[in-house]
Design goal:
The chain is α/β, with parallel strands linked by helices. It contains 9 helices and 7 strands, in the order βααβαβαβαβββαααα.
Length: about 210
C-alpha cells in the first residue's frame, strides 16, 4: 500500500449527504477481479447519462475539477453496504484524501486500509471549504498527516484528529497484510514449533 504523509492537490466537491457505497460503485461493476479499473465505475450513474455520455450537471465532470485528488463531501459519506470496492474506486479515480464532517464506520476503516486519508472536520469548517472551493477556480489544499493539518495558500490552517494506530499504519503504508508481515519471523517460528508430527498423522489415518 502506498504510504500517505503529505498531499497537495486540487479540490473537487460533492455536495450531497448520505452518499452510499452502492452509488459509488453500482452493482454491475462488482464482478471485476482486481482493484485496478474501478475508477471508471465511480459514481457511474451520476457521471453518465443513459446514452453513455458524460452528465454535464455532475460536479466531477466539470472542467474546473478535472484532475482533482482531494474530495470534499458532506455528512455520513460512505454509508450503505460494506463493499470495499468503494475505496478502491475512490483511489483508482485519483483521490488520495477525503474531507467530510462524518463517515460510515466500515467505509472509514477501509479507506485507511487502502491508502486513502479520510479527514473529519466540523460541519462549519467543511461549509467554509465548500465556499472557498466554489469561489476560487483551481482551489488547492494540503493535507498533512504528520502534523494533522489541512492548509491552503491563503493562510487557512485546520487541525484534525486521527487514531494514532491508523495514522502510523498510513504513514508507513501498512495494510492488514503489511502488518502481519512485520511479524513474519515470529509467525514462521510458531509454525515450526507447532508443526504436526508424523505420529499425529498416523493416528488420524488409523481412525
Amino acid at each position: 500500500m502506498q504510504p500517505f504523509s503529505k498531499h497537495t492537490g486540487l479540490v473537487a466537491i460533492l455536495d450531497r449527504v448520505n452518499v452510499d457505497t452502492d452509488q459509488m460503485v453500482p452493482r454491475q461493476f462488482l464482478k471485476l477481479l482486481t482493484r485496478e479499473g474501478f475508477g471508471k465505475a465511480l459514481f457511474y450513474d451520476w457521471r453518465f447519462l443513459d446514452d453513455g455520455k458524460l452528465n454535464p450537471d455532475f460536479t466531477l465532470n466539470q472542467p474546473r475539477y478535472r484532475g482533482a485528488s482531494i474530495l470534499l463531501a458532506r455528512a455520513n459519506f460512505g454509508c450503505g453496504s460494506s463493499r470495499e470496492h468503494a475505496p478502491w474506486a475512490i483511489l483508482d479515480y485519483g483521490f488520495r484524501a477525503l474531507i467530510a464532517p462524518s463517515y460510515a464506520d466500515i467505509f472509514y476503516n477501509n479507506c485507511f486500509k487502502n491508502g486513502i486519508l479520510p479527514v473529519t472536520l466540523p460541519a462549519e469548517q467543511v461549509d467554509d471549504l465548500f465556499r472557498r472551493t466554489e469561489r476560487q477556480d483551481g482551489y488547492r489544499l494540503t493535507v498533512d498527516l504528520e502534523s494533522q493539518t489541512v492548509t491552503d495558500e491563503s493562510g487557512l490552517s485546520l487541525r484534525f484528529d486521527v487514531d494514532p494506530f491508523r495514522r502510523e499504519c498510513l504513514l508507513k503504508g501498512l495494510d492488514d497484510i503489511g502488518l502481519s508481515l512485520r511479524f513474519a519471523d515470529k509467525i514462521a517460528a510458531y509454525e515450526r514449533e507447532h508443526r504436526p508430527s508424523a505420529t499425529m498423522y498416523e493416528k488420524v489415518d488409523a481412525v
